[in-house]
Amino acid sequence: MPPEDLHTVVTESMDDNKPERMAVPDLFDEQEEITAVQNIVAPPAAPPQPYLAVPSFQETPLDEFNTRQPLLSLAFPTLFPYGEAEFLQQRERKVEYSDYIRHLIKHELGTFAQHPRFRYVAFNTILRRQAGSKAGFFVRGRDIPDLDELRAAFQEDTPEARALLRSVTTLANSLRGTGAYWSDRRRDLYAYIKNLGAAHFFLTLSAADLHWDDLMRWMPNYDDWRAADSATRIRLARANLRDNPLIAAYWFHHRYRVFQETVLDPKFGVTDYWSRYEWQGQRPVMQYSPDERQNTLSELTDLVNRVQRHVCNERYCLRKHRVSNQLACRFHFPMALRDEPGLEKPLGSTFYRLYPVRNHPALNIYNPLVIMAWQANIDIAPCTGTKSLLQYLTKYISKGEPESPSYRHLMQTAIQGANRNRPLQSAVHKLLNRLIGNRDCSAQEVLHFLLGLPLQMASRDVIPVDLRPEALHRVTFHPRRDDGDLAQGSSKCYKYMARPPPIEDVTYLRWLRAYQHTGAQLPRRRAKDRVLRYFPIYDPDKDVEDFARVKMMLHHPFRDMQDLLSLEDNHFPTFTDAYTWCRQAHVGIHEADCYGEITVEDVPEELFEDVDLPEQTPPPQSWELLARQRPGPNPAERTEDPDALGQRDIDRQYDWTPHIGRCPDDAFPRDYWQQQRALFPATLSNTAAVEPDSLNEKQWQIYNLIVSHYLQWLKSPVAEDAGITRSPILRAAPTGVAAYAISGRTLHSLFRLPVPVGTTYQPLQAAQLRDVQELFQGIQYLVIDEKSMIGLRTLTWIDNRCRQIFPQHTEQLFGGLNIILAGDFFQLPPVLQKPLYDISANLTGLDLLGRQRYWSFDITIELDTVVRQQGADPQSVAFRRTLDHLRTQEVSREDWQLLSTRAAVQLDQEQVTGFDKHVHLMFHRAAVDQHNHQSVRDLRTPVIRITATNSSPAAAKASAKEASNLTQDLFLSIGCRVMLLNNTWVERGLVNGSFATIRDIVWLSTTEDVHESPPAALLVEFDAYDGPIWLQDDQRHRLVPIIPVTREFQFNGELCSRTQFPVVLAYAITVHKAQGLTLDYAVLDISQSEFATGLRYVAVSRVRTLQGILFSTTFDLADLTRTVPSAAILARMADAFRRANQHVSISTSPYCAVLTKIYSGSMTPRHLLGPVPSPRITRRHPPAVHHSQPRVLHRLHY
């Protein structure tokens, strides 16, 4: 039939230029009646019109991932008029951001889905969140190069850079909708063709969303649309699609699924399919009657005439022919008429194509049943072979995706602006963001994504199969349930080799296709066989051995790779020999594996080139003009990286010359603090801070137990011989902060224990032993606080050291010394050691000995009164109750509601800002480093980079953790907060964990360049220090120096050393570092998973009051609760149950004054081990030693 004239093509963008609307609140109060009357009698001057002032601009944009400001309600006040239902609002259960957005766009009022910009903000945020999450996951467990090394690697295109880029490429494949995603789906489709053979036909279904009656029934004004003329229907349909893209997006998906199930599958007997969605920015306007359809030839003729005719235009198909230089249709329209079908090769193609009967030169191929059922434009074509299909896919599967720069170019660009503090993560994040933003998305595509609808569907699952040698197989990583840290999974090959006995004879190929890969590995009875996407594909002519190994792996059961070299009592030296024998002996037995490359000829160069068309950019809307006013970088000026501390303008322009020679060159020798300790000796206080009369019942039990035991010892002959000239008690703790809190020493310094923990324990040499024995002279009791941080191995070392200190009692536990353990097992466990309460059945060596020594403690007294959090008001009582529940992971809804009142989003901005000066407690070191970096950056004061001095270039590459906590580069400024990382003078408060403020940085007078030579000292003011000072400045700051220290360490098998100041920035610290501290104010984040049980409890319990806490991030009730207690909690409860029968009740006794003189410290639970005489100092000719029999053997638990 002769075609009718078609209307011009319009685009969605033509409809977007309608006037924008917004709500402007009335900022003036309503007039009272008397005022209104007065205004009528004597009209006043015209009042100013209500308006909203545009807020000022700032250089840095708001962070859409911030956890303090409800960004959505600030950006979209008309959608959140009362600020309710914000994403940052606390909820009882965890809600993912994508689920939250999907709920909003399905809101019955439709305001969120109809908003012209909300959907794009949500879409962008979700993709950027995914990119950030994947980038963070990517760098975990990797050796992170610095920014300069990263830039050099990609500039030189090193093998390491190429390997890194391949990993990033694989990471990008999971970002839905990106070019990398569709490239990966194309590889899936290749695997489909190789596994299942060529498809029978292609089918393309277009949307006639301007005239589908079933779609318009769901749109507003359906009756008006149905009754209107053609032009009005088009206008109404366009308005409906513009204002309700959510309905159109979902309806197309639903319509296609129903169409496939009710039409395609029954008609063509479809057994397998692969499909994807595409969106285009322009839509032809077609007129179509909404009358009831009739299944007649006339109806078919009318439908084909309207939707199947191809009309050439320059924007769609007309391209310049490379040979003739004339405009021609790239789809070869108009086509010649045909009376008979035939197979022919199109111009420029090497494969045949079916040409059906044709009676019109401009009609697209169609199937009558399909087009009558679909009622819109279709394209259908049979496949003529596997190679032709693969060639078509190579050329067209990713059509519509713009050509992107190479990954290497993208990575080089991303590295240029990467964050120096975390260069690799920042570069990967930027690269992924570039992939996300390299194309425009229509409203329907965005809402299709936000609804969580699939972009691609198939009848079978596709899984990648790694066929490289076993050592190179990829393994999966997943967060552990208990602590959220990454746990290494198993590769598919390893899972197969560890398969259960019932499937012993199942081949690897059959297992991959038809069996579950987790749990009991049962057959997937109702699911179709998986499609296997092999990699790599070995060449049978070049990679002979690897190709043979793959074939043997797929077709013969094995538990170990070497099993494949023995077949039916035949042993072969190589896989090639085994495969050769298999091919001859097992002809026709093995199922087809579809392994091998199908050769595809190169796609010929396109005969048509694009036509340069003038751009028709629509005028910018008001919000676009407003956005362009944001300050941006001036190309003529130097671009400054605000994170490049030490290289910013403020850093480079500051003159540090006055700091050179400010102090005498001999003022700060390396043994400065040794000299101070010698000149001003300090002893640990033994005066009780609490009067005995004020003790509660449980404290009285401990008091009387120790006093009674000590008085018994005083009556012994050994005590009379030894004499009492000093306190018989020493106090110690695992950390410097905890030791200072009880006026004690650290365990490692007291007993000369190995540091770090992984090093080997060694007996003390004679000189060291004499010093330690002198310290223990007359000591009868050792109080060890923070017992939760003591490991089984450490307890064994303490026992060994005590037996060496007291050689006359080596047969007794701890050399006969009375040991009192104090603390709370529900706080943090030891690092890299088994805790004392560990209940593992497979302990060996030092850990097993440690358990034996711990179980020798057989008396427990449990204190049940909280000392740190005081107060009798309802809030204080509720806070203590919440801490108890947080301690045992039994948080209730009421507890969560109480803590949620201190979330930043629940407080006003002034309250939140008031916490900026207080310390942040964080779970992870990386988060601490990032916050400290940002804090010193935001001081806007000059920063100096202090580089450590290393024994070799290799030592400079060691991390702070590997170099005994000495950082390679310190970025410090005058006025910044730091934390000491050295137990410089425990008795005076200079311990590992002490806070200070830098007041000055000084260099020797001989220094020529402060950027090349390290300072002589950092002059700081400690928060808690009661010793001699070096200087008091004009602001009455009590200044003392921090001197560089040198520490040795093993790195890559080499003994190295590093000299650096033992400090780190202290705007944030880890929770581990905070154990033992008591804080008035702190900023916390407890929303993350605990990698060590007790992190949340320790973080929250450091602060005295609830009002002293600010939670920087919201947390849901589900974050704080567990359906099943963690393994660590169960172990602690089991230990408490074992000690339940050890609890004692001791009557009061009159020996209060005695304990006041011999014991001081916080009244917390203690473990006691029985009495022994004082140690004897080892001499060259030791005198006779008096042995005493212990009168009582006490072992105390609580």
Automatic annotation (TrEMBL):
**What is the top-level taxon of the source organism?**
Eukaryota
Q: Give me the ranges of the annotated region Disordered.
A: 1-20, 612-647
* UniProt GO BP: DNA recombination; DNA repair; telomere maintenance
- Keyword list, A-Z: ATP-binding, DNA damage, DNA recombination, DNA repair, Helicase, Hydrolase, Nucleotide-binding
Where does the DNA helicase Pif1-like DEAD-box helicase domain start and stop, copy by copy?
Answer: 728-872
* EC number(s) from the headed UniProt entry: 5.6.2.3
Enumerate the cofactors the protein uses: Mg(2+)
Q: What is this protein called?
A: ATP-dependent DNA helicase
Organism encoding this protein: Penicillium capsulatum
Taxonomic path: Eukaryota, Fungi, Dikarya, Ascomycota, Pezizomycotina
